[in-house]
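EamA family transporter: structure, please.
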Amino acid sequence: MKKETKGMWLGVLGVAIFAVTLPMTRLATGPTEDPQLSAWFITFARAALAGGLSLLFLGMTRSPRPTAAQRKPLLLAMLGNAVGFPLCLGLALRHVSSGHAAVFTALLPLATAALAAWVLHQRARLGFWVCAGLGAAMVVAFSLLRASQHAGGFALEWADLLLLGAILSAAMGYVFGAQVTPQLGAERVICWVCVMALPFSVPGALLNWPSIPIHSSAWLALVYVGVFSMWAGFFAWYRGLAMGGALRVSQVQLLQPFFSILAAVPLLGEVLEPITLGFALGVVAVVFFGKRLASSPAPVLHPAPAAKATP
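Here you go.
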C-alpha cells in the first residue's frame, strides 16, 4: 500500500473516531428524562483518562518538556479541546440529539480556518468568507426551523448556543495546537495538552463524581471519549495528515457529520430525519467550497509588460 493511500485511510479512521464522539457523549450524559453522567464530570474524567495515557507515552518516548514560549499556545489549546469543547458539547447533548449536533459540527473546518486566518494572520480570499457566512446562516436556519417544530417558537435554543461554543472552543484548540506542532510534533501536542490539564481534571472528576446509579453503557461511553476521542483518535489523524498530505487528507473531515448521524442510529436508536441529512449535506457542500478557497492563494496581478515593473 502506498504511503499516501495509507495516510488517507488513517485520516478516515481518525475522522470516524471523532464522529462517534457525539453519540457517545449523548450516551454518557443521558437525555433530560433519564440523566446519567454530568457534563462537568465527563469533561474532567475524559481529560484525566487521556492525561494518564499521555504521561505513559511521554515517559516512554522521553519527550522533552515544552519551553516557556510553547506553554501559552498549549494552555489555550487545553482550554479549547480539553475543557470548552467537551463541556459545551456535554451540556448541549442532554437536550438535543447527536444528529442535530452533527449539523453544527459540520462548520468546524470553516471555523478553524477562519480563526487561523485571524490568529495566525493567514490570508483568505473573499469567497472563503462568503462561504463561511453562508454556512453559518444555514446552521442558524436549521436551528430556527427545529425550534419552531419542537417548541412552536421561532428562536435559537439554548443548546444551540452551547453547540456554537463547542465549535469555537474546538477551533481555538486546533489553531493554537497547530502553532507548536512543528516544534513538538503532532502526537506530543495532544499529550502535553492532556498532561497540563491533569491538575484540574483529576480533582474536578473526583469532586463531580456521580452520586446516583449510572448505567454501564454511560461508563463505557465515557471510556470511549476519554481514550479514543481525546487521545488515540489524534494519533491516527495526525499520522494520516503527515503521511498522506494535510491538504488531501483534511478533506475527509467532510464525512464526519454523516458518520455521526449514522453512528447514532445503532448506538442511540435515533431516526434518520430528511431535514437533518439535507442541512448536513448543504453545510458540508459549503464547507467543501470554502476550504478550497481558503487553501488557494489569491491571484497575483502582474503589471502590464509595457510598464516594465517587477512583479
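Notes: The CA atoms of residues 12 and 252 lie 6 Å apart.
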